[in-house]
Amino acid sequence: MMADWIGFHEAVARVAMRTKLTNAEALLADAIERGQVKCDGTLLTVPGGLNFYRGIHATDGRSVSVPDLNRWISELSGEPDEKPTKPHRPAGRSLEAADAEIVGQMRDLISNSHLPSPTAAAKQIVGDGSGAAGAGTPESKIRRLVGRYKETYGE
To answer: How far apart are CA 59 and CA 9, in angstroms?
Structure first.
């Protein structure tokens, strides 16, 4: 079975585990009937008006869509579907513009002062950390500047 599909009973177990509801099987069958969760079975109606999918309770490989199931469980339980993303630097806060001038100075130092590497040039400019923008340590500023140098000049 593909990773995007699981058996009905496994799906019921996931619903019960994440929602702590005792009627997980009935809720899932209802969600399938409404089209909220995809199932590869065939919908049947039996006397008494009960709808079910042929093969759901069988072991013939009837499956439930995992992405649909996870989305539905999240809506049902009020939990987020996925973990929140890691915070990123706010837009417009890049040090790329400030680094551009320093990268040019590094290039001049390497060619005119015969420094052996971008790292040596960055160390000379950064010094105790005050030679480059940013709140990082001198070592992190050096790494950042060397990376920008290599992006710019490919050396």
So the answer is: 10
